[in-house]
Design goal:
The chain is of the alpha+beta class. It folds into three domains: 93 residues, no CATH class; 99 residues, T-fold (Orthogonal Bundle), CATH 1.10.3980; 114 residues, ApbE-like domains (T-fold, Roll). Helix 2 runs antiparallel to helix 7. The longest helix is centred in the first third of the chain and has 22 residues. The termini are far apart.
Length: 321
Amino acid sequence: MKRLVLLLLLAALAAPAGELLRVENSLDAMGTTYTVVAYGPDQNVLIAATEQAFEEVRRIDRMLSNYRPDSELSQVNRLAAQRPVAVGPEVFQLLAGCVEYGRLSQGAFDITVGPLMKLWGFYKGSGRLPHRAEIRGALGRVGYKNILLDRSAQTVRFTRPGIELDPGGVGKGYAVDRMVAVLREHGLNSALVTAGGSSIYALGAPPGEQGWKVKIRNPKKPAETIDELTLRDLSMSTSGNYEKFFRAQGKLYSHIMDPRTGYPAQGVLSVSVISPKTLDSEVWAKPFYILGRDWAVRNKPRGFRVFLCEDRAGMACAWLQ
């Protein structure tokens, strides 16, 4: 908070009368770093808006974290195989959306992928190569169709033991959307909100610009940019094999898991998705990565843009038509 106030005071001293103030601040939460860059004419509003946006991330972490035993998600994971578990409307709607994402993606997105992520060592570590028998065992505990939702009672039930919800594929996108909603509620209309650099929402535009400039990394050389674009009131999320991976027996295994096979997906290097909501862009990046170019062309939602890099002839990247 002291750093935020200092940045604002310096900006206020440097800014001529009538110009917008700029604030930039970050928060480490939910296993990643959330950053807000915002412009506005009122110092007090900027302070209140950005602090409340970060408090929203903390609230979502308390609600969805599977590292916190008292979170709603942890309680579901612990009890839903034994009996229906009542959850709040927010968690229920998010889980209902995840089940629908699973259906639309033909199971390529699956919020119950947790047992596989643990088995492959991506839950808290950098990865390990499991035996095939272990993978078959974990697959028996994966499947979004094992989630039973009772809308009238607002309860969640699992059809078999061992099912575990993993918010890793939705948490960042949902948190970014909620942060943007908070900024809008405070009257801000110029901000860039990012979660670990892989999920971004561009609210309005910075002063004198048409939108916020964002970059897509080269998956073969992540320090380099392969494309640059301008976003305004849109999100962009990227999934790439360079984010978290390990090598075993001469092969690269990334953290992007195919829940249908039990193995990390192969063939695609990275996918960037542009959509109106960050939750959608974050979720859909996984099925497009797992199922590949042809499936993405046929099934990407109307109005979405997709940039895909394949491991073909070295590397082939293009915006999908």
